[in-house]
Amino acid sequence: MMTRTSMTRISMQAFILAMSFLPVLALFAETGHISTVPFWRLIFTGAASIFIFSCALTLFCKPIAGKFLGVAGALGGYISAWPHIMTSPYFALTATVLLISIIFMLADFEIQGPFIRKTRVETQKPVWDIFLSHPARVLVVTFLGLCAMGTLLLLLPIAAQDRTVGFVDAAFTAVSAVCVTGLIVLDTPNDFTEYGQFFILVLIQLGGLGIMGITTVGLHTMGRRLSLTHERVLASMADTNHKDLVQSLVTILKFTFAAESLGAVLLTFMFYTAGDTGSQAVWRGIFTAVSAFCNAGFALQSDSLMSWHTTPAVLHIVATLIIFGGMAPATTLVIPKWLAGRQVPIPARIALIASIVLLFLGTVFIMAFEWGGVLAGLSFSDKIQNAWFQSVTLRTAGFNSLDIAGIAHPTFLLMLVFMFIGGSPGGTAGGVKTTTIGILAMTFFANITNRREVVLQNRRIRAVTVFRAVTIVGAGLLLWFGVVLMLEVTQPQIRVKDLIFEATSALGTVGLSTGATGLLDEIGKIIIIIAMFCGRIGPVTLFMLLSDPQASSSSRCPDAKIFLT
Q: Taking CA 262 as the corner, what is the angle to CA 257 and CA 268, rounded to the nearest 5 degrees?
């Protein structure tokens, strides 16, 4: 049960986390355009935000380190505001007083009460244990590091094609690749060299598989291992027993590379027979296969797969890779057993049934709504195959064989729902996940049939699972509303309909767009960057950053009867 002290700690952490965004927001509110900001101010502003963010996570666990990071963040923000300090005496006085106050407050800060015993124990651990001992923090830190590395790689001169890539555009592309989204502000085949395309491919692969999983397998191969604490953290992230962690990760890597290799061979053959040279066909085949399996949506064709909408083989190969990549390998490997009528694990059954229902309904509705719309002009078989392909890619991948900007209003609403749902847990897809929707659907059915429990395969679904499903959807809706609101306030030049689609696509890490991506100014791009990052790590993970990894004890309070209807 959460104590008052715990609530105070979480409130303070939340306040400091919120303050970490202040330097960046203040800079962009002042300039409005990043190209007018000196590079040194960008560096100090970014460093200030990172230091303040780290201070929030370390202050209660490592007070000395937290104080140092807090002071460093305050100094970074002070230096970033130096042009105003030099020109405005009032601003200089206020900023200086604020800086001194923060330094003195951090110097006098002491942990009291229940935190003292915990702090003494944890001070024996390395600083990085604060980040690596909590699943949510592991996800955030690794993806942040990968995005930063990708941004630096794409800023290299060898990555750009006859032009210099701007910082925001490089960050946007890197985050989109790492978060396997597929939204682009630069044309991948024309604006990036082969080196730049290779960097994007590596970011897609690492982002799709998870850098921590690859590191674990690499350490195991070299005869080394992680600590038991870190193994338990990774096991909770991989949803497996920590004793089977390495074996599960090895299975994931084997399945991934086998599927991508087979897909690359088939696509290479298709591209070669279509007129590509041998090297072009191989590179295009590998890139498309990895992008499809990781549900990234990046393509080496400027029109995605619209030029292949009358080539069913390419569409079905890509669709198959998307489906298998969007589900956990463990789920995919039990499909033969499930088709044979044998019993499979409940999570796999829910994911499979939900995926089939969504794929079928998506195909039927797209055909019904777009038969005389974007599907017009195609043959009967091509209409069915393109509707199927768009239903597959709609929930997570971002490839398109049809003109998304020309879809009808009913299709638009359908796409919003499907993008919000996303793929299955354990795969590379985003969204709130099929199992979450499956649990909520079963709960809804149990309630309307006046059943007190949710039962599947003679197994009772625990109440905590239902609570988590509700929390995931609630957090997703809350984050979606916030992103849409920020885009609506800052991007008045874009239609609200397109902004809603863009926000949903970014949070669901889908990558489809009705054309709004290219119209975003730099503030809009930054909002979408944040949305893609939040969508990849999951809305609930953001709230888990402030949670205590220790489970709270159940209370014995009397029940409260509340009427809802």
A: 120
